[in-house]
Specification:
alpha+beta; Nucleotidyltransferase, domain 5; 13 helices; about 40% helix
């Protein structure tokens, strides 16, 4: 039968196998080896779409439900809660099962053989500071993997997997900090790697420390949305009663992928109409109600995500004084434009970058090493493309050499190499 490495990510997923002794990622959507971790339930056609196709059909206005960032429900109470899909209800656990089963099906089709053994990637912590929730998350992922046809299921920390991929590139022994910052978590490992260590059966002594925190791209999206988009919908706007502001919960949910659909419940719309009666800014709350009534929440989130990417490109192109990025929101209200700036983004997300820097310091402390002993910083995960994230990482290790990994493939390749060790 077949073994594989599976990197189920908050934003993107990959799956790798070994063919003729060569570890490689399989194409999961056309020629692309990454599949956005998205599923669209098309109500009219009674079918499911996945990945880029799911996002595209949603953007074209099809009647249905787009679900992304599903990995973030692992370890939370949401995993066994039900959500509405047209006239039926389904558990988030079963939505995850649909998505992972499709990844497995596509991979087996490309590999030309069944796959029944898997090394699953996992963050160092699914849930910060809660070992019981962390255990529940891994257990749920194990149960889902068995349910979709994997006989043998094991796990490896995602930064350790990335280290195995990086190790293939080095020609001398070194100590590296692996920084894997994806859509949902930031994970770090300090490892001793080298050409003479690659084939060791037991690498436990080479893993000097691993730490992680639940900070990722979706958190940067959420805070950017609250900073730049939500004020145009009434966030932090005054109520008629002196000293009161519009309730934060609606805006927090609208800025969080996994919670947007909860706003579409009739009960919430009734609450918002009550807020409209009591607000001092009915123009802003009226926009919020329009977004909820027309189910535009995911479009807002996608717009903010694209804006984050534009701001990152702008910061790289104009390192001195990046220009304002004007984002049209005329699909909410004619003529509405939201200005976003790089300094504003950096300020809004400073708590996140501080958390990342603190986790690197903790990893160093746990390893017993001083920062001058780190030879290289290996950067992987899509969120390491954010300039403020890169600065926060490299500032902690100014003497280490930065190494660019495959932003979306290093973990999957490393998990595949680990599968060779465990199952060959």
């Amino acid at each position: 039968m077949g073994y594989c490495g599976l990197d189920f990510g908050t934003s993107n997923s990959t799956l790798g196998v070994v063919t003729d002794g060569h570890a490689h990622l399989l194409p999961l959507e056309g020629d692309e080896t990454t599949l956005p971790s998205a599923i669209f339930f098309d109500f009219a056609a009674k079918r499911e779409e996945f990945g880029r196709a799911a996002i595209q059909i949603y953007a074209e206005g099809a009647d249905g439900r787009l679900m992304r960032s599903l990995k973030s429900v692992l370890g939370t109470d949401l995993i066994d809660m039900e959500t509405q899909l047209d006239r039926r209800r389904i558990k988030f656990r079963d939505v995850l099962k649909h998505l992972l089963a499709e990844i497995k099906r596509r991979a087996e089709e490309k590999a030309g053989r069944p796959l029944d053994q898997v090394v699953h990637g996992r963050p160092v912590h699914f849930v910060d500071g809660d070992d019981a929730a962390d255990h529940r998350a891994e257990t749920a992922l194990t149960e889902i993997a068995h349910a979709i046809g994997f006989r043998d299921v094991s796990f490896q920390f995602e930064p350790i997997a990335a280290a195995l991929d990086y190790e293939r590139q080095v020609n001398e022994e070194q100590i590296a900090l692996i920084a894997d910052i994806g859509g949902g978590t930031s994970d770090f490992s300090i490892v001793r790697i080298g050409p003479d260590r690659r084939d060791k059966a037991d690498r436990g002594q080479d893993i000097l420390a691993s730490t992680g925190i639940r900070i990722g791209g979706v958190d940067f999206d959420r805070l950017l949305s609250l900073h730049g988009a939500m004020p145009h919908l009434g966030y932090q706007s005054p109520m008629q009663r002196k000293g009161l502001l519009a309730p934060n919960s609606y805006f927090n949910d609208l800025s969080t992928w996994s919670k947007i659909n909860f706003l579409y419940a009739p009960k919430v719309l009734a609450e918002l109409r009550q807020v409209l009666r009591e607000t001092a800014r009915p123009d802003l709350i009226g926009r919020l109600i329009h977004v909820v009534e027309e189910h535009l929440g995911h479009r807002v989130a996608m717009t903010v995500e694209r804006t984050k990417i534009r701001l990152s490109a702008t910061a790289a192109e104009f390192p001195g004084e990046p220009p304002v990025v004007e984002v049209p929101l005329d699909w909410i209200e004619r003529g509405l434009v939201a200005p976003f700036t790089v300094p504003g983004f950096d300020t809004a997300t400073a708590g996140l970058t501080d958390g990342i820097a603190g986790m690197i310091r903790r990893c160093l402390t746990d390893s017993g090493l001083t920062k001058d002993k780190i030879d290289a910083v290996f950067l992987t995960g899509g969120s390491t493309l954010l300039p403020n994230v890169r600065r926060s990482i490299l500032a902690e290790l100014p003497d280490a050499r930065p190494v660019e990994g495959d932003k979306f493939g290093s973990v999957g390749l490393g998990l595949t190499l680990e599968a060779v060790r465990r199952y060959r």
